[in-house]
Amino acid sequence: MASFRSPNTPAGLFSTLATTHIHIDGAPFEGTKKIVEWFAAWGIRGKVDRVLECIGGPQRLGFPELYAHHTAGENDKEDFGCFSTMLLDDKPQECQRAIQLLFQDVEKFPGAVVEAEESFARIDSRGSWHEEEPGQRRLAINPKEFGFYVPPQHSSIEVHHSVDVEKFGNEPSPLVLPEMMEALGDKLDLGGLFRFEKNEAHAIRSNSFASPDGIRARVEEQHRALQEFLAGTLRGRTYTVKALVERVIGVKHMR
After folding, report:
1. Is residue 3 part of a domain?
2. Interacting residues of 56 by C-beta distance below 8 A, sequence separation 6+
3. Most exposed among 31, 78, 169, 182, judged by the fewest C-beta atoms under 10 Å?
4. pTM value?
5. In a domain, 163, yes or no
């Protein structure tokens, strides 16, 4: 199984602006799937995707403390076996309890990373910027209660660029991560590139952290650089490019 999505979980749900979600990164796929299934039965929708390949980027050198918390794995061995996301807005009054229950399950997977974030901006497949704050709907999450590491202001925003390329059978991906990192690592200030296992597309995801100051201009400039690279690399291929911008509530490495 390449991925799992709980019932009644439409595509794009976890990119809905002004919502809060929580990730489990780097835990075993089957164990993560069981956690997501349990939370779905309780009323919190989620998904899990296998990660086939990952590569670190130049930004890690500038934010060593943050990436020490954010990078899944043990004993200096990086291990992003899968990524999962669950929508805490499905149980807004019980979000604190949901995180407590989540930690009870994930603590048996040393090296896994748990991260809570708030989505507030995105670039859609047409290249348009959208922004929305949760306002009074913001979930009451106290990161200190859970021992979360809270990044300093200059790295409190996480940016994810996503590329999905039309897939034909079992062909290899036309996008090679080391080549992408060499071309885009500095332009996008990348912390990592990830190749997800998807049946219908070659799926590449990125991560980086940034200051909230001037974030729209920065992400739009990165999006243009990514589009320029893809136009020269994927001639004649059908693909979509998007970006999601999130405010980090807290991150915890399960040691």
Report:
1. no
2. 71, 78, 191, 192
3. 169
4. 0.96
5. yes
